[in-house]
Request: fold
Amino acid sequence: MALASLPKSELIALLERERRAVSERDLIIGQRDEKITHLAQERDYLKAQVEMLKRMQFGQKRERFEGDSSQIALPFEPTAQEKQQQEATTEEQITYTRKKTSAHKGRAALPDHLPVEEVEIYPEGDLSDMICIGKDVTEELSASRPGSSSNDIFATNMRQRTAKGSTPAICPNG
Reply:
């Protein structure tokens, strides 16, 4: 639309509409600016509140009581010498004995009435130049259909007679 071809009255009306639109936009922008400043102030206030509450909750606390030096001491309070005597008389020595519980020692022993079958296991190889240095005893309960029995397995540990630092020959588990 060419503005030069419009009559003066229409140009004035168009100019008036544009002024109203601009003034409405300015009004809306002003309201938004007021709201933004209000919200920014509220945010700053709430931040200050949070900081104050954090200081109250987690900050250092100092509490001190200073009595009046012109006040007369009560006669009910003991003197320094009496306090020292009271502290000395309250010391006493207490002794006691308690039973110490031992560590777990394994399962309970097998009953004596069960028949016992003893099995001895020796290391493999030539045992003529070896000496016995100990035996490992294993008790096992063998439960079969007709009845139960106990097996005592003796595994003999041996080492060579001449070698002092040699490793022992240990029986395989059988």
User: Anything to note?
Assistant: The mean pLDDT is 81.
